Amino acid sequence: MLRKIITVKENERTFVFKEQQLTQVLIPGKHAFWDVKNTLSFRTFDINGLYFSEPNADRLYRNYPILQEHISHWKLNSNEVGLLYIDDLLRGIVAPSEHLYLWQDAGEIRLERIAIDSQIELDERILFLINRAGANTASRLIRSDRTVAMKPIADVSVAAEHVGLLYVDGRFVRRLAPGQHAFWQFNHSITLKSFDTRAQLLEISGQEILSKDRVSLRINLTAGIKIEDAELLAQSVEKVDEYIYKTLQLALREAVGTKSLDDILLDKLYINGTVRELVTASLTGIGVSLQSVGVKDIILPGEIKAILNQVVEAQKAAEANVIKRREETAATRSLHNTAKVMENNPTLLRLKELEALEKVADKIENLTVYGGLEGLMNNTVKIV
Known about the structure:
Order of helices and strands: EEEEEHEEEEEHEEEEEEEHHHHEHHH
Radius of gyration: 50 Å
Strand content: 25-35%
Helix content: 25-40%
Structural class: alpha+beta
Shape: rod-shaped
Distance between the termini: 178 Å
Strand order of the largest sheet: 3-2-5
Number of strands: 18
């Protein structure tokens, strides 16, 4: 006779197979079996591992009702996820369509089902529990080998003064306010498009453009834009900044290319007004308003700049010459008028002579007089 003694620990369960058929599940304790024909086999499991994850678990559970006394089974639908709680603590997230087999004696087990089609966004309570448990990772996902490991939840953030557009499977769903948001991404593709709703400055720098008279100009343009309709913008344009930049760039080229250099320099506001006129309707059509536009710099080629400097210098020299001649003419006319007055007034002429003599005397330090005072004054001052 062959007698077998099997000892099962507190954290263990042992399956007894007779001729490869499950006949019994042993609970903790010491068990004795007579095996005369050596037909018995035993397999022990550690229930601390929680999961009964044998490759043939589905068949064993289905074919042997005795397992239902020791193992709990859940089946999730394709549109459901499960939150697995052990002793009221979140253990992890169960993927859709999964069969879950758990040892009943491992703890107080609870599975919370969530329909991810009708409740794709997570509420704050569930998100807090998941983040606290560190369950939002592909490695922590509770799944079988037939399910691809993936991050269960898509975390998206909308910054302050921004508007977020939520797309599920490529279809626009709704706007998102600034803040943190989380969505189940099983069976779905989650996409967020975020737009800054504040006024922004866009620089169109270093544009080499030929004027109508074929002068190469380098122009820097600054434009103020503001997104007014984010949904329309997202529907209309894929690369927003690039589209707006190209639109302003083409308008600038058209504005400069239809005017000569002299016209552009004479009317510096022409470019601003023309660019605004050319792009306003186009930008409004995609949900963007043009707040302001202005030329920051107009840089001329070196040779053109030198020529213009010479022209300006010649103009200023000519203006200075005209002013000089005008002053000389006025001075001559004044002298002529003065001479006429003194010609008819000898007394006034003598006073002018004395005035001139006084000015000369002020510049003389020593005066030598010959012939006495009478000789000095003779014919100098004669008042009739």
